[in-house]
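Figure 3 (text version): structure tokens given as input.
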């Protein structure tokens, strides 16, 4: 596994931990369960799909798994914006976790784009 792969997996793991903790806060302190559940699913799925991509059978499989991670990341950004706009999380909480998620999104866009280009160049 490359250093970059380790880096992205570690960033995803750290983000998943933040999502788990945020959902725990939303459930216990705010008694918000529906949005928290949706965000828990999408937010932890980012890293799970990145991990699956590391064992992809083909390059196309790698792109597909990475793209799923990107879609889950984008969904998580949506739930975070909704939580902030409905005052379930403070602006400070929002800024911190949103920035982390947006960084993951930018990395996943780059990985997906590069992998697709590499596949196209091999044809």
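Below: residues designed for each position.
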């Amino acid at each position: 596994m490359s250093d970059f792969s380790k880096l992205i997996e570690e960033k995803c793991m750290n983000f998943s931990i933040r999502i788990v903790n945020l959902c725990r806060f939303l459930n216990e302190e705010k008694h918000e369960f529906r949005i928290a559940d949706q965000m828990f699913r999408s937010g932890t799925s980012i890293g799970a799909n990145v991990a699956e991509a590391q064992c992809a059978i083909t390059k196309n499989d790698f792109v597909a798994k990475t793209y799923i991670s990107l879609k889950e990341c984008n969904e998580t950004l949506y739930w975070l914006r909704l939580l902030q706009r409905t005052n379930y999380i403070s602006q400070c909480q929002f800024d911190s976790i949103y920035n982390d998620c947006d960084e993951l999104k930018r990395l996943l866009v780059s990985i997906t784009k590069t992998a697709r280009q590499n596949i196209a160049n091999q044809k």
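The two ends are 25 Å apart (CA to CA).
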